[in-house]
Design brief:
With 423 residues, this protein is mostly helical. It contains 23 helices and 4 strands. It has a 4-stranded antiparallel β-sheet with strand order 1-2-4-3.
């Protein structure tokens, strides 16, 4: 049949790729946007399911015949505007994702099988996201939640590699953990992310992780670094993201994604990026924050947070940058001390900084505030150890410690303070 011409061509290419045993040939053919697969879809409406499955069996052995046929059927549903039905086909017991997973469990040493499983699992995640996009007006994210449960089942069924020679199983398991982390992050499921992080630490020590290609390590370090941030483990986040940056190729687009999370962390840790670094990686949205911290300009910081609010929320860095407000106030107080020392007796007396000095500077920066709000903010800076000292409410002065009034960065900078008697 003429209608089966392009379909047969697709099955033939997939059969040849599988026979070659080359992951680089198999994986692209299972992408939804592969040209041969797209051409096969044009005539698929005039082909029955029985005919499609029969053609697949003529070219491919099981389970790949069923995987390939279901793959095209799911793409057909997707192209007709029904990603929800495509998702259901893809994650069914006899669907492509489960079929490739079972094949990998039986062939844990074949990297081309791992590549097929990785692509089909990734396709399932994409289909879930597209299905939820149609239901967004109803506030429904059921498919993303469903694919999270599906990936959990896949991780349990496949299990981690137990022997060094099970390289394909190792790659497949790591890919599933990365995909599950991405899904949980999109759903803001902090507990789920923490469980994935625990699984990773149990099964992927430094030596084990070195057995997978750098691209896998970069992805793992990046998403696990973001997971550490969700738990307010800034030091762990920096460590993971720095590892991802070190492993990533300098010309890769992923460098920008890594730095987008790493730069605010470094600023929170007291290390400011250079303007050249931000310009080189098109991260100019961080330039006003860098300047605000360097100069103690609270007004610039507040205006930048407001202007970049939606972009920062979309990037998942808004709450992280909010923590930098205390760093800006720390720098402001430090500069005010320098100004006050020029007028000893009036604004500065033996480590006593008159709060009126800080209030005047804030007003010049265009920050609408009063003395009560200023005392509240500076009290927070003291509790979080950005500044060492205390506030005399009666005298309206900040009494700075004689020894290191501006301490080095510490964990209290990014952790929420715990007050006695609080829940």
């Amino acid at each position: 049949m003429a209608a089966l011409g392009q379909v047969n061509k697709y099955f033939e290419e997939l059969s040849n790729a599988i026979s070659s045993g080359q992951a680089g040939r198999v994986k692209p053919l299972l992408r939804p946007d592969h040209p041969t697969a797209q051409q096969a879809l044009f005539n698929l409406t005039s082909v029955s399911t029985a005919q499609l499955q029969g053609a697949a069996k003529r070219w491919l052995d099981q389970p790949w015949a069923s995987i390939a046929a279901q793959h095209l059927l799911a793409l057909s549903k997707r192209s007709s505007g029904r990603p929800d039905q495509a998702f259901a086909l893809y994650t069914a017991a006899e669907g492509p994702a489960k079929g490739a997973l079972n094949a990998l469990a039986e062939q844990p040493q074949d990297l081309w099988v791992a590549a097929a499983m990785e692509q089909t699992a990734s396709n399932a995640v994409v289909l879930a996201r597209e299905a939820d996009a149609q239901l967004m007006l109803e506030g429904d994210s059921s498919k993303s939640k469903a694919v999270g449960g599906f990936l959990q089942q896949c991780i349990s069924a496949l299990g981690p590699a137990r022997r060094p020679e099970e390289s394909a199983r190792r790659r497949g398991n790591l890919t599933l953990l990365i995909l599950l982390t991405r899904v949980y992050m999109r759903l803001n499921n902090v507990q789920g992310c923490s469980q994935v992080l625990k699984n990773f630490k149990q099964n992927y020590s430094g030596e084990v992780l070195q057995r997978v290609p750098a691209a896998y390590r970069v992805a793992a370090y990046y998403y696990l670094g973001r997971t550490e941030l969700n738990s307010d483990n800034i030091a762990g986040g920096i460590q993971m993201l720095q590892a991802a940056f070190k492993e990533c190729k300098a010309d890769s687009e992923n460098v920008k994604h890594i730095l987008r999370a790493l730069v605010p962390l470094k600023m929170l840790h007291g290390e400011l990026p250079t303007a050249l670094l931000l310009q080189r990686h098109a991260l100019q949205e961080y330039e006003p924050f860098r300047e605000a911290i360097a100069t103690g300009d609270v007004g610039l910081f507040e205006r930048s947070m407001q202007a970049n609010q939606y972009r920062l929320i979309a990037n998942g860095t808004y709450l992280l940058l909010e923590k930098l407000r205390f760093s800006v106030y720390r720098r402001l107080v430090k500069r005010c001390v320098g100004i006050a020392k020029q007028h000893p007796g009036r604004d500065w007396q033996e480590h006593h900084l008159h709060l009126e000095v800080v209030l005047r500077v804030l007003q010049q920066q265009g920050v609408p505030t009063d003395m009560d709000e200023l005392e509240c903010m500076l009290s927070n800076c003291i509790v979080r150890r950005y500044v060492k000292g205390y506030i005399s409410n009666k005298l309206k002065v900040l009494v700075l410690a004689k020894d290191e009034p501006f301490p080095a960065p510490c964990e209290e900078w990014w952790r929420e303070p715990h007050f006695v008697g609080s829940a």
